[in-house]
Amino acid sequence: MRDQSTRPTRRGVLFGGAAVAAGALATACTSNKEKDDPAPAAQTGALGGDNDKPGKQVVIGFSAPAADHGWTAAIAKNAEAQAKKYKDVTFKPVQPTNDINQQISAVESLISEKVNVLVMLPNDGEQLNQVARKAMDAGIPVINLDRVFPDKLSYRTWIGGDNYGMGVSAGHYIGKKLKAKGVSNPVIVEIQGIATLPLTQDRSKGFADALKSYGYSVTAKQDAKFTVETGNQVASNLLQAHKKIDALWNHDDDQGVGVLAAIKQSGRKEFFMVGGAGSANAMREIKAGNGVLEATVTYPPTMAASAVRLARLLAQGKGMADLVELEPPQSITLASETVTRDNVGRYLPLGFES
Amino acid sequence: MTETDAGVRGAPARGAWAKGPLRPLRRAGAGRGPGEFRHLGLVAALALLAVVGVISEPDNFPTSGNLVGILALAATIGVITVGQTFVIIGGGIDLSVGSVMALASVWATTVATQSYGPAVMALCAILVGTGAGVVSGLLISYGRMVPFIATLAMLVSARGLAQRMSDRKTQLIRPENDAIESLSTTKVLGLPLVVYIFAAVAVAGWVLLNRTTFGRRTFAVGGNPEAARLAGIDVRRHTLLLYALSGFCCGVAAIIIMARTTTGSSTHGDLYELDAIAAVIIGGTLLTGGRGTVAGSILGVLVFTLITNLFILNGLQTSDQLIAKGVIIGIAVLLQRRGLRSPT
């Protein structure tokens, strides 16, 4: 019994030591500052043309969800960086949030401040439709970013990406390449994001449709959950399921980190891979050219920068330089561009950090 | 004092009782020596799944590459499940395992930690995991909080801290620290090192539970804390140690997930708590504590990993996988209840 009563102190000391060490680590290891933080503002293109000459002073309100993904973070960054390039623009971002109610009240505050124009990426198009409509009714044009409002009276212009088009671009890249190689009955594997989301279904449909035009079809598809870990898990199993793969399309570059790790661990090299979204990390991988990742198809967060430009044009009563019409269009769907080793140099500044 | 002595003698007896076949009804186990056959149901389930694999995918399933892959995939959740087994046998539950692993992986891959090299990264993951376990343990043992609530609080706050620390970004392991990654790329005798880590944790867990005073006390504390206290066991201290152990396992699991994915991320370990608890339960451990085995839990993990593998090999959807897992949990617990009722 006495033996037992002495033990606690000994272990206590051990644990105390561990706690102190953990405390030391806590202070030493939480910093996440890169020593040479690359300049983030390069993602917005250069200015040029008549439209960029300073005009009437305009106030642009901006509301977007809080960043839960590299892509969303890039949206806010791009919008702000673009606005800063114009001397005639006052940029008014509201606190980003993932809460519908908070976004509604934030937008309401922008309306009562009477901003000239409003750029909005809603958490949910349906649920923020009312407040967007309220802004339009108050005479403030709304630029709807990516997630569309169901009611056309709620926005002046929609600008966003093309999920179906992403699938099409990936399908064409893979189809063309396999056709050139003369492969018949190729094994084409697809790793999706969250299968239940409409955007995932659009991407898959575009992919299948484009492949069909080459006479190919998807051999196997499996959903991950947009996370590195699920990407790794699904890819590890899929690689076992198919001893020989010709091509692989992964919907999302963030989960792609896990997919690439799984491929590296399996030592497989016989196929090529196409990514999705266009993260800087994937582009660096493509540029290095020593892995299976050959291309990625974009869903560009630079759309936020374009939206700020459109907002400024609208507020100043100008049209788009290369269109004949006097006002900006009602809807702009951005193409999903294919980034390969040949053009990666041009895209790398536009890639977002995941 | 006589009472205490009796209790002390009682504790190991209880341990043995817990290990032994409380379920003499188990058809195959009946009449045999105790112990060896208590997991026969699970082994049969594994064998059945393997047969399904061989029949449905004769070219892809029974290959060494696939079987090694299954073990490597099982390593992360397997290590966590060993810790969870101890906590549950000790009468508690740890809901925070997935979040703590995520936090440990993020903490170990910050720019600052990475500047110290792979050894410090690994140490950091283990210390963060153990530290989180100690906090949960203190809240439960000395703060008298219900384990469910205390570890739920840890689940939420650890995930939040991980998100904050990483700014919700995926933190890649830098090339100079790829010693971490080599844990899953380097193979010894055909098996990647992460599988050896998994095996080492499992064996250590088995020894700790079955061959040490610590293990016997765990059974005693979980079976009847009051009796354990009367027997002279410092129940609160022991409870604290159990959660610290679970946290330690989360730290080890964080190293494995970093090796496998080459990243630290706040999204790692999503819903691991449910996977770990499910594996422990179908492994025959009582959710009320006092009885259970490490081997059963490991078999439970393998059953789940095998199901995922089989479904993907056969090109079936994730939703069907979830249904299959749910059905297995249901059947396992039903069998367990029958086994429980019979001896009383």
UniProtKB/TrEMBL annotation, chain A:
Keyword set, alphabetical order: Signal
InterPro entries tied to this protein: Peripla_BP_I (IPR028082), SBP_2_dom (IPR025997), TAT_signal (IPR006311)
Cellular component terms per the entry's GO annotation: cell envelope
Top-rank taxon, per record: Bacteria
Primary location group: other
Family: Belongs to the bacterial solute-binding protein 2 family.
Name the UniProt record assigns to this protein: Substrate-binding domain-containing protein
Organism expressing this protein natively: Actinomadura physcomitrii
